[in-house]
Amino acid sequence: MTSTSAADTAAPTGDRWRAVRPLLAAAFWLAVWQLAALALHQEILLVSPVRVLARLAELVPTADFWATVGRTTGRITTGFVAAAVVGVMLAAASAGSRAVEALVKPLVTTIRSTPVVSFIILVLIWASSDKLAAIISFLMALPIVHANVLAGIRQRDPKLLEVATVFAVPWRRRLLAIDVPAVLPYFVAGCRTGVGLAWKSGIAAEVIGLPSGSIGEQLYQAKILLSSADLFAWTVVIVLVASLFERVVVSGLSLLERRVSAGMSGGVDAGVAP
Amino acid sequence: MIGLRAVTKRYGDRVVLDAFDLALDDGAVTALLGANGSGKTTVGRLLLGLVAPDVGAVEGVAGLRRAAQFQENRLCEQLSAVGNVRLVLGRAVPVAEVVAALRAVGLDDESVAKPVHALSGGQRRRVALVRALLPEAELVVLDEPFTGVDTAAKALSLAWAAQRLVGRTALLITHDEAEAAALGARVVRLAGRDAAGRPAAECDGGSSDLDPPV
What predicted TM-score, i.e. pTM, was given to this entire model? Predict the structure, then answer.
């Protein structure tokens, strides 16, 4: 064995340590939690992680659980996707017309600065609790996507836009070759923030609006039954599902971003590349 | 007749052009020579319709198909050389023709297909040249077209450009009289500033070798 091979084996060990470290930290805090619960011995005040895990094990195999997760995910996804689409359209319209921008700006600013609970109660008066979570997720994600995309449109290279003007490049080709590559990173950043907001506000809306068979309703049940185990178990579910959802959205968008920045996006490829 | 009539252009307090006249020869290359800051690029931008004159008029450009090689390359970084040229050409011109043009200015098969951000400065300059000269434009503006292009590649590019410019109305902005001569251009000189700090009037001559330097 030479010193080189010793170094070779040392490097993966270091990598493994780096991967294990956060798990160890998590295990430490779980242990602190477990000990605290044991010491307190009051399940209503502080349920133990073992008890939460046991409750999760009861919940997960039931069809009801998956139906509940599915309904809530569906509502929040609907709200978020609508926010992404409308946000892009409003940003494009705002960038294209000063009148539209003047009209849209106060609307978006108002939505952004209004407390989410005010919207939840207002929307409950206007719409059924079934649509509540989707509408609230939409309202919370919309200003973020709109602001980011508008910033992206404003940051396009004016020199490239002049090229398009001089050569009279048709708008569709210009969109794919100049506009989309410039705006996409801003859109991805907006979606990343927006998706997290959509989940947090959507669940809050469900807890207040109580659409039947939703995660929010389960949280509310846990509250009236003073069941800390249920509250913690459903919270774990929300965190896992929301982060999975965020990961899917972000990785899907970054794949698109990579393809566009490599000049391989379907449209651009077909339009201009060999 | 394409040209500028009695054009004055200011940027803030700075007078770039003062009652400036220029007439481009129809179907021929007109070269605009002058020192840095004498307003050459502004003349090009006026003709391309990218800036408007403060006083005077830009004539004969309405509805023209235009093409330009800007002072900077202004390429879409994520696209290949071929992609950048086809962006302004559309699908009417076959890929083979675009590749042939890029090869004529000295780009090899590999560089033609790579995203342009992977190309050298001189290669990128030539992609911008091909993008400006391949479309069938009625007015072409070339702003320092060979900056950063090495001697061998410049010879190829000049030959190709001269061939593409036959019979076309074009403005060549340059420091280099040899370049103007190689492209068969009539030379117009834009003077620098006079004692008062204003741009001096241009000296419009017949050909480059008869023109005294200003």
Answer: 0.80
